[in-house]
């Protein structure tokens, strides 16, 4: 349910409503817009009749949200959310490119890549320290050492950092280095992890489960939002289908669909979405054209030697080409890179 306050509702009237929500045992999610304050009420299965709050001074109307996701829904908030990260905004006119290796492998690998992607125009450095691998025998990431190297790359280049967090008990150590916490496809429905990042004060990039629907993705986002963290970016990274030429099927229509259902910014991962280096640039161009707010791209100094995801990683030159090609598409739809 959403309580829409009148344009000139006083602070006293707003706090009276907030207090009553708390007294009734609900959680209030106030949003101060340009003109109005709106307050979301989330209950645990219990409801209050809308008329109850309509009688409060300063209240314009009370609206029920019909979708199963509430705080993530467009009904709750019409304008696209702008997620601010160290002077960068995701969800605005500028399309933000996050790039770097699948895994942090060594000091020289991450530093070299950080400089190369920065030079080409990326704003955020990606790199996995804790790696969720299908096989327990595959490289599992450098873990804490990987975080230290990411920190060094951040100090040296000024790039913001995105890296994956796999367990609730790691949120704090990963959060000390990361500017964005990445939740991987395999953990989209790890509710303990979603609650942990929901209680932590850092933006979250939530990847769509490889076998999940868009509605399930939005419900997973709802776990983070309802725990108080509103800085969520949704990421389409491909889903499982019968197609075998690609690693996953990149569901590009998820972008306009999510833009119609939700106010949260949307990112496309063309690397996992295709699994093939020669498809990453075409998929990135399509992602920009269809309205993505950000891209997450794997780049490696020497993809043949990568310890994970080499087949889908771009060389530095290929990444430069990607940046050049998506710029003209962004201009054509009145956006910037
Ligand atoms: C990654 O970004 O390297 C990764 C593991 O992604 P996903 O969770 O989408 O497989
Ligand atoms: Mn990867």
Break the fold down into its secondary structure elements and pairings:
Blueprint: E1 2-5, H1 11-23, E2 27-32, E3 37-42, H2 50-54, E4 59-63, E5 83-85, E6 88-90, E7 96-100, H3 107-120, E8 124-126, H4 144-157, E9 160-164, H5 171-177, E10 180-183, H6 191-198, E11 204-207, H7 214-226, E12 232-236, H8 254-261, E13 266-268, H9 270-274, H10 277-289, E14 294-298, H11 316-332
Parallel strand pairs: 7-8, 7-14, 8-9, 9-10, 10-11, 11-12, 12-13, 13-14
Antiparallel strand pairs: 1-3, 1-4, 2-3, 5-6
Helix pairs in contact: 3-4, 3-11, 6-7, 10-11
Phosphoenolpyruvate (PEP) binds at residues 102, 128, 132, 184-186, 207, 237, 269, 272.
Report what the structure shows:
By secondary structure, the chain is an alpha/beta fold. The protein has two domains: 62 residues, 2-Layer Sandwich (Alpha-Beta Plaits), CATH 3.30.70; 250 residues, Alpha-Beta Barrel (TIM Barrel), CATH 3.20.20. 35% of the residues lie in helices and 18% in strands. Helix 3 packs parallel to helix 11. The two termini are 37 Å apart. 45% of the residues are buried. The mean pLDDT is 96. The protein binds phosphoenolpyruvate and manganese (II) ion. Phosphoenolpyruvate (PEP) binds next to loops.
């Amino acid at each position: 349910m959403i309580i829409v306050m009148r344009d000139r509702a006083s602070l006293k009237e707003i706090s009276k409503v907030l207090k009553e929500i708390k007294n009734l045992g609900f959680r209030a999610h106030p949003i101060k817009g340009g003109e109005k304050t709106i307050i979301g009420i989330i209950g645990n299965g219990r409801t209050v009749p809308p008329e109850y709050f309509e009688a409060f001074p300063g209240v314009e109307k009370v609206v029920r949200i019909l979708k199963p996701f509430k705080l993530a829904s467009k009904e709750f908030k019409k304008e696209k959310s702008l997620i601010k990260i160290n002077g960068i905004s995701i969800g605005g006119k500028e399309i933000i490119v996050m790039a770097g290796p699948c895994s942090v492998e060594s000091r020289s690998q991450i530093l070299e890549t950080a400089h190369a992607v920065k030079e080409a125009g990326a704003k955020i450095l990606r790199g996995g320290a804790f790696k969720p691998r299908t096989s327990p025998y595959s490289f599992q990431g450098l873990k804490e050492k990987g975080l230290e190297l990411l920190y060094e790359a951040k100090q040296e280049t000024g790039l913001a950092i995105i890296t994956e967090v796999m367990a609730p008990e790691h949120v704090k150590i990963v959060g000390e280095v990361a500017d964005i916490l990445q939740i991987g496809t395999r953990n989209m429905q790890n509710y303990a992890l979603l609650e942990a990042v929901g209680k932590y004060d850092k933006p979250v990039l939530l990847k769509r489960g490889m076998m999940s629907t868009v509605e399930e993705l939005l419900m997973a986002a709802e776990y983070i939002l309802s725990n108080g963290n509103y800085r969520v970016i949704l990421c389409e990274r491909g889903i499982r289908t019968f197609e075998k030429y690609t690693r996953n099927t990149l569901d590009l229509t998820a972008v306009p669909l999510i833009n119609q259902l939700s106010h949260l910014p949307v990112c496309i991962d063309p690397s996992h979405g295709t699994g093939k280096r020669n498809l990453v640039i075409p998929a990135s161009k399509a992602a920009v054209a269809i309205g993505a707010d950000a891209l997450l791209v794997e780049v490696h100094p020497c993809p043949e030697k990568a310890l994970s995801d080499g087949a889908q990683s771009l060389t530095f030159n290929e990444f430069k080409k990607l940046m050049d090609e998506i710029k003209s598409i962004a201009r054509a739809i009145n956006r910037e890179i």
